[in-house]
């Protein structure tokens, strides 16, 4: 949870700032891991699907997608 907060902390990363591809990919992985630990298998599986859709893409920001 701390890693998720650190990636999108509103004090250091304004909400209107672009999210890099790398940060988005890592953020999804962290979120999936938290959901698994909390026992939410279906949402974790959905995040795995989203991650697999991103797997072939590189660079840029998520807003460009």
| Low-pLDDT residue spans | 60-65
What letter string, H or E per element, gives the SSE order?
HHH
Q: Assess the beta-strand content as a share of residues.
A: under 5%
* Range of helix content: 55-70%
Q: Give the number of helices.
A: 3
Give a count of the beta strands, DSSP E runs of length 2 or more: 0
Radius of gyration: 12 Å
Cα separation of the termini: 26 Å
Any overview of this molecule?
The protein has 65 residues and is an all-alpha fold. It has 3 helices and no strands. The longest helix has 18 residues, at 21-38. It is flat. The protein starts with a helix and ends in an 11-residue tail after the last helix. The relative contact order is 0.18. The model is unreliable at 60-65 (pLDDT under 50).
